[in-house]
Write a structure and sequence with these properties.
The protein has about 850 residues and is α+β, with helices and mostly antiparallel strands. The protein has 34 helices and eleven strands. The longest helix has 28 residues, at about 110-140.
Length: about 850
């Protein structure tokens, strides 16, 4: 019976509510519509796993690619069929996961049709090239070629990697770099450490995909090289260090003991341990060496020690991601030790001996060189990028780390020595001496694969001596790793942090002007008046004390504060240069007889009475109205209160913006992502009707008697494909929001090297030429001129900001200091041009 059966005559029952499709079904349907090829390929691989039997424990050689089937038997179709099923359950499942993630991403960039033929083209061609190379190596009598020729390959990831690398050419600059750098690092590590045909073919496919991508992207206007931000460099270096550290783990999980670099790893020995014959005491033969290695390295203890290089590199990579100098030192030290011990272990000295070199196989020599070049390459990368890892740990944390590690080593090494002396009867050749134990002390703490082979019978073979030998390294490295993590997490709480808090407290009382909050940024130092009620934020570069914005002091104490800071600089042997101060301070420097000049114009909007009425506001009113029609909304927040979705999106947009700039990240009076994360900084977002970010701005506060009375814009980014006029929309919306909250002023910040509309530029001087050069250098990347014109749409009042200095003879040093403050990573060529500019003769004002 239905509801209509009970309805009164002459009435119509209301229609039943439509059945809503569950969200997960809609998500699946959307995925299938966006990625039809990847979804179909995953289904084919799944079905082929059961049809061919690889998911049931069988392996069909006739459908796999190998030298014997493809070349010798003439089964030409195998490079194609080998792309459609995995060689095992694990291999098939991993291939499906990669296809549904990385493959789907590549499909969205390439398009379904282009993704399909890219998958098959790169995959088949990679196997043809790889198998051809193996066949040639076999014909030349190569040991590597002979071993590889027995591999039967069935792996869909080969084509997937080629498809992903081809798609990277069409990806945003940020992801293009990440895919290529991290991707090829992993491909190289698997090719060197696992050395199976699948890994080599994947590397070839990746290279082919990269070349194909360059062809597919031809005609698109894309830069060939992208600059990375500090954060992105740290992320990429950490990823590379972590990926190279996976080498030993790759050998352990694949069992590739005889791969090119497998000889540097030792975990569970491939040789089964047995009782050592007594004859080894008198004649320590090669069989005795192998048996001793099996005894000493059997069991979980040596296995865990063999993982130490992996764990240390992963811990160091974690610290590198946050810019820790201690992690940089650890990564450098670990790779240096690995390079040195590996060179000793694999016998690099044999390559230097004419007699021994002639007896070595070519493959052995190549493996020896590669085994050492991998850590050396990481060392070179770390040295090249060292300036990005400057976050220092507190001295107390460093001392605690050193004491902990040294203390742990003394305890565990002492335990090893004590047990060796007490249980000496369980050594093969009898009771060892203290000197013999000390000489052999390194072995229990280091993976045996990184050490030369055992050369004598002075080894423990049973009892407590063997147990301690196998296990004493494990607790030491646990202590070392825990201490390292604590060191990397330690926060620098020193005089600078305390002084910054004092400076912020003075800002809240008032003073510092609309740009005063910039004084809280990293890189600044702080000077305080004797009574603690005044302060100056500054940084010393090339013995020039370069200040930021107005001094922070009570009204009426301006001259006293400036004079006291100048006296302090003179006592330190520095030249004071006041930068970006407002006009009310100018009479003070004029009375000193100092040189001064305009360095820009600040655009300020007075919020009480702010309206968007009249013709003068038409260019702002139109984007505001359009945004409202298109459903764009706004969100005022701080970084810590933002939903994770938005913080990630802001980071990605910022990295993309930095990647396309020709100059390194700016500093001094230009903030970036790190400054955005301050809890006092306001973040104002424009969001489209789907919840995506259209534009991002950040705002620096200024206070009066503890209350925020003004905001100054700092960070401005618009997303790709955002509404035309979105920046006018977001700034106008921010002004209306701030007015409603009771703020008095909104500053669109200073425009460097700008002059008020209608004013003539000043006569050229040494410093104006210097700043002109700096502006010309920055203009293509940062567009200060166009930005200044943009700000004029808001009908602001203009406040000139100045720079003042005492001695024209210090112009060269001052100019270099300003250049270095803005461009801390400028190239020597850029600095040479800067020096040539400022050494031309001229005078101040």
């Amino acid at each position: 019976m239905t509801a209509s059966d009970n309805a009164p005559a002459g009435t119509i029952a209301p229609p039943s509510a439509p059945h809503e499709t569950p969200r997960w079904i809609r998500a699946v349907l959307t995925y299938l519509l966006r990625n039809p090829f990847s979804a179909a390929l995953a289904l084919v691989v799944l079905a082929a796993g059961f049809v061919t039997g690889t998911f049931l424990g069988r392996f069909p050689q006739e459908f796999a690619a190998s030298v014997s089937t493809t070349i010798e038997d003439g089964d030409w179709w195998t490079p194609l069929t080998a792309l459609l099923f995995g060689d095992s359950v694990i291999g098939g499942v991993l291939a499906i996961l990669l296809i549904l993630t990385a493959g789907a991403y590549a499909e969205r960039k390439l398009g379904s049709v282009r993704a399909a033929w890219t998958f098959f083209l790169t995959g088949v061609l990679a196997m043809v090239i790889g198998l051809g190379g193996q066949w040639l190596l076999v014909s030349w009598g190569s040991q590597w070629g002979l071993l590889a020729s027995y591999d039967a390959v069935a792996d869909p990831t080969i084509g997937t990697v080629g498809m992903l690398m081809a798609a990277s050419a069409l990806a945003p600059a940020l992801w293009q770099r990440r895919i290529r750098v991290v991707g090829f690092t992993l491909l190289m590590m698997f090719a060197l450490y696992a050395a199976d045909s699948d890994s080599v073919f994947r590397l070839i496919s990746g290279a082919l995909g990269l070349l194909l991508g360059l062809v597919l992207a031809r005609g698109a206007i894309r830069p060939t090289w992208h600059r990375s931000s500090h954060r992105e460099v740290r992320t990429l270096v950490a990823a590379i260090v972590g990926a190279t550290g996976l080498g030993p783990f790759i050998v352990l999980i694949s069992g590739a003991w005889y791969s090119p670099l497998g000889l540097v790893v030792s975990g569970f020995s491939p040789i089964e341990a047995a009782t050592m014959p007594k004859s080894c005491v008198d004649d320590f033969t090669a069989d005795c060496v192998r048996q001793a290695d099996a005894i000493l390295n059997s069991g979980p203890g040596p296995f865990l020690v063999s993982l130490v290089p992996l764990v240390l590199t992963l811990v160091a990579a974690w610290g590198l991601r946050t810019g820790r100098r201690a992690a940089w030192i650890m990564a450098l030290a670990v790779n240096a030790v690995i390079a040195l011990l590996t060179a000793t272990s694999v016998g690099i000295n044999d390559l230097l001996d004419d007699k021994l070199r002639g007896a070595l196989l070519i493959e052995d020599g190549i493996a020896m060189v590669l085994a050492v070049l991998v850590p050396i390459g990481v060392i070179a990368l770390l040295l090249f990028t060292r300036r990005h890892f400057r976050v220092a740990a507190p001295p107390a944390a460093v001392r605690h780390f050193i004491l902990t590690v040294v203390g742990a080593f003394v305890v565990f090494a002492g335990l090893y020595l004590a047990i060796g002396l007490i249980d000496g009867d369980n050594y093969l050749d009898g009771q060892p001496s203290v000197g013999e134990l000390v000489a052999d002390m390194v072995r229990p703490f280091v993976s045996s694969g990184l050490l030369p082979a055992i050369s004598d019978a002075g080894i423990p073979i049973d009892g407590a001596a063997l147990f301690v030998y196998q296990w004493v390294g494990v607790p030491f490295w646990i202590v070392f790793i825990v201490a390292s993590v604590r060191l990397f997490r330690a926060t620098q709480v020193d005089r600078a942090v305390v002084e910054e808090a004092r400076f912020r407290a003075l800002l809240r009382e008032g003073g510092g002007g609309t740009l005063g909050f910039m004084g809280t940024w990293a890189g600044n130092s702080y000077w305080f008046t004797a009574d603690g009620r005044g302060a100056v934020a500054y940084r010393v570069i090339r013995k020039v004390a370069l200040t930021v914005s107005d001094p922070v002091c009570a009204e009426g104490a301006e001259r006293e504060t400036v004079e006291a800071f100048i006296a302090y600089c003179e006592s330190q042997g520095w030249s004071a240069c006041f930068y970006s101060f407002h006009e009310r301070y100018l009479p003070i420097f004029q009375s000193f007889g100092w040189q001064y000049m305009s360095v820009g114009e600040e655009t300020v909007i007075d919020l009480p009475g702010f309206e968007l009425a009249g013709k003068a506001w038409q260019k702002v009113r139109q984007p505001l109205n359009r945004g409202e029609r298109e459903g764009i909304t706004t969100l005022w927040s701080t970084w810590n209160d933002l939903p994770t979705r938005y913080s990630r999106e802001i980071t990605a947009v910022s990295e993309e913006w930095v990647a396309h700039k020709k100059l390194p990240e700016m500093g001094f009076t230009l903030g970036g992502m790190e400054e955005l994360k301050d809890s006092d900084v306001g973040i104002f977002l424009a969001l489209n009707k789907d919840g995506g970010i259209e534009a991002t701005t950040s705002w620096l506060p200024s206070w009066t008697d503890g209350k925020v009375t003004g905001w100054t814009i700092d960070f401005m980014r618009r997303s790709d494909g955002s509404m035309p006029g979105i920046m006018e929309f977001i700034i106008a919306s921010a002004a209306l929001h701030m007015k409603e909250q009771g703020a008095q002023t909104l500053s669109l910040s200073g425009a460097p090297l700008a002059t008020k509309p209608g004013e003539q530029a000043p006569d050229p001087t040494v410093m104006t030429r210097l700043l002109g050069w700096l502006g010309e250098m920055l203009e293509p990347a940062y567009g200060f001129t166009s930005l200044f014109r943009f700000k004029s749409k808001f009908n602001p009042r203009y406040e000139t900001i100045y720079m003042a200095y005492a001695d024209p003879a210090k112009l060269a040093a001052i100019g270099l200091a300003i250049g270095e403050a803005y461009l801390p990573e400028a190239t020597p060529k850029e600095y040479l041009a800067l020096a040539q500019t400022i050494t031309n003769r001229g005078g101040g004002r």
